[in-house]
Amino acid sequence: MEKKKPAGQPDKRQAIINGALTLFARDGYTRASLDAIAAEAGVSNRTIYNHFNDKAELFQTVIQESTQRVADTVIDVIDRHLSKVVDLETDLVDLGLAWLAVLTSDLAPHFALIRQINAETEHIPPAALRLWQDTGPGRVRRELADRLRQIADRGHLTIDDPTRAAGHLMLLISADNLADRAMLNDKDEVTAMVSAGVHAFLYGYKR
């Protein structure tokens, strides 16, 4: 039987992962030291080594857990909005708005971490990059492609390559289309951007 933790004693491994996410998202992989992560997590440096061999392994664990959580959330958004299509354009706009809302949710540190990864790709352990791509953007794109294929099978879209179509939709509703990420808090601006992106997508794919 698993031994229960005493009341009031947080899981040290999870505290380390949470602290590491905060530091990696703020300072990047190269600049975030294990000493600083230990201080952020409220543990000793030695405690980190009790759970992880080195910073690379810790980083890969952070990426894996954070990416899994975000991917699960986004796939739930896809399922909610595309499982049963009533009005395709409206449903796609609602999907885009819910998708972008994830960026400003309590999952926001993950996206700060991804910006750091993109800024220092050459310094990131290759295994961590592959893990992020496969379990994050790759998995989400595969799920979206499957939904678009189902919609096409019902006669609403003309799609030869669902994976490519999913990539197009993801790009067209991306926050990168906003002039400034601060605009994510401007509901009217976000709605206008997503609506324009969906309109462009349907111009190319609607039957």
TrEMBL record:
Coiled coil: none annotated. One of its GO terms (molecular function) is transcription cis-regulatory region binding. It comes from the Bacteria. Keywords: DNA-binding, Transcription, Transcription regulation. Residues 10-70 form the HTH tetR-type domain. Residues 33-52 bind DNA. Signal peptide: none annotated. GO terms for biological process: negative regulation of DNA-templated transcription. PANTHER family: HTH-TYPE TRANSCRIPTIONAL DUAL REGULATOR CECR, HTH-TYPE TRANSCRIPTIONAL REGULATOR RUTR. This is TetR family transcriptional regulator. It comes from Micromonospora kangleipakensis.
